[in-house]
Every structure is written in structure tokens, then in C-alpha cells.
Amino acid sequence: MSDFTPTEMMTIAAARALTNDDVCFVGIGAPSAACNVARLTHAPDITLIYESGTVGTKPDVLPLSIGDGELCDTALFTVSVPEMFRYWLQGGRITTGFLGGAQIDRFANLNTTVVGPYDHPKVRLPGGGGAPEIASNCGQIFITMALSKRGFVEKLPFITSMGHGEGGNHRERLGMKTKGPTRVITDLCILEPDPVTKELTVVSIHEGVAREQIIENCGWAIKFADEVIETPPPTETELSVLRDINARTKKAHEAA
């Protein structure tokens, strides 16, 4: 096996999903790392937008939050949050949203609100923020999460961000005109919704990963496509770019 970690494979596989022409609404954390690797490699003209209103931002280090000054300092311009949501997002001007979550179900619905009963949760999570609007209004959604039974669950205790709802044409029946989640990138494999049922299906397995690992780490009986490919391993350039930005980020945040 090549010298890279599962997290590095996940981030780079997620970065590859983006194109030079994308206008991308970026989530903090793993989505931000993936989007900036794409910008620094194969998609230099991608437009990255963060929830705080920064448009065309090109951070040198990864932000700790949407309020990180690095985003505004390196943005092409900054607009108010109401303008960001009403004009840019709800106006259909963003092609791709990149999200993460605490939990996901087989139809790519996300939970970032509570684990356990809402009134008496085991864990109260940060909440939706702008994610529900991003999931509804971006042209398509990519999701990046590590594959585990804690995260990939049979039934969500709370749906924060709509994926494909109950499956099938549920989004269409609700009047939603966007595609919703089209790809879920994990540290073990890549999943895409079945064209008809919209249930997440494994389409690509990362180098060195066995099907049994994927089955063992998923909270439902996960399905595999008829033809499953092996995810191409990271290139030296991709790894170098990812490690450089992570190193810069660590140094900057330690100094702060």
C-alpha cells in the first residue's frame, strides 16, 4: 500500500469531485480541506464561498470557523450573510455544496442536531447553521465523513439537512429542484445514490480496503454497485499540497 492515511485518501478523493467551473459553498473541517486541495491542484479557478459571506476566498491556512479572519482577508469580496443566503444561495447561483455531519442515513439525510431523543439527548450537537439551506438550494451536494457505525446509522434521531428523504422521488414531491447529495466520500470508499431508489451504494473502494471492512463499519446493510472500481491512490502532488496546507494550518493555530 502507498504511504498515505485513510483521512488523506478521503480528503483527496473529495477534492477530485470538484471542477474548475464550480461555485462551491464550503463547510468547515474536512470539506474545507478538500475544497482547498482542489483549488491548489486541478481546479485553480474554482470559486469558494463560505457561510460568513466571503466569495472567491483563497485561504493560505484552513479556517477554524466561518468567522476566521483568514477567509475575509483572502476573499475577492465579502457580502452580508442575508445577501449570501437570499441572493447567492437561494437564488440558485451556487453549483455545489460541500458538507459533513455527525450522522448520515442510507438516503444521505444528515444529522448535526442531537444524538438521542430531542428533549433529552445523549449528545447535543452544534446544530444546522446554514447546512439545511445549503442542502436544499445548491445544485448538488457532496458529503465527506469517516465511515463508522456511529456516523452511518440505520435511522437518524433527527434530520437536520435533507438528503433524499425517504428515497425515490421524495425531493421532487416536496418541490425541491436541486439534485441533492450526489456523492458521499469516506475514508474507506465512495458512495453514490442509486438512480431509482436513491439509497447510497458503494461505487469505488479505496486501495487496500476490503469489502468486509465497509460492511462492518456501516450501520445498515450497505449495498455495492454491480461494477465497483478501485479509487486511484493519491498522487505525490496531491499529498504534498494537502500536507503542506495542514502543516501551515497547524503552525498558524499553534502560534495563535
From TrEMBL:
Organism field: Rhizobium freirei PRF 81
Highest taxon in the source lineage: Bacteria
Annotated coiled-coil segments of the chain: none
Keyword Translocase listed: no
Keywords annotated in UniProt: Transferase
Record-level Gene Ontology MF annotations: CoA-transferase activity
A Pfam family annotated for this UniProt entry: CoA_trans
Entries under Gene3D superfamilies matching the protein: Glutaconate Coenzyme A-transferase (3.40.1080.10)
Protein name listed in UniProt: Putative CoA-transferase subunit B protein
Entry annotated with the keyword DNA-binding: no
